[in-house]
Design goal:
Elements (H helix, E strand, L loop, with lengths): L3 H16 L7 E4 L3 H10 L6 E4 L3 H6 L6 E5 L5 E6 L4 H14 L1
Length: about 100
């Protein structure tokens, strides 16, 4: 089951992804079943890809400190900004700005 913060930011993430087709959004489905993750994506009309991470291996390699977490990468795929915990549309915009400035 998704964390409350994931639910709270779901609509803003959908809008952010739709407003920024030049940005690649990728979800990491942590400690979830494939069916629950699919249902969550359908509920919020998300169309971005995701990777299944039931054991947390990918999340661990990213240094995940809590959920939800958002990572922003520059053009060289280096993490340049992160948000630990729930954010909103403005937070996604600030993260994008940081990634563009770092490139």
């Amino acid at each position: 089951m998704p964390e409350p913060g994931c639910i709270a930011e779901a609509e803003d993430l959908r809008r952010f992804a739709a407003d920024h087709p030049e940005v690649q959004v990728v979800g990491v489905d942590l400690q979830d079943s494939r069916e629950a993750a699919k249902d969550f994506y359908e509920r919020w009309r998300w169309t971005h890809p995701s990777v299944f991470d039931p054991d947390g291996e990918i999340s661990f390699s990213l240094g995940l400190q809590g959920t939800p977490s958002t990572f922003f990468l520059d053009r060289q795929h280096r993490i340049v900004s992160r948000i630990v915990g729930e954010t909103d549309y403005a937070g996604f915009e600030r993260g994008l700005e940081a990634a563009l400035e770092a490139s």
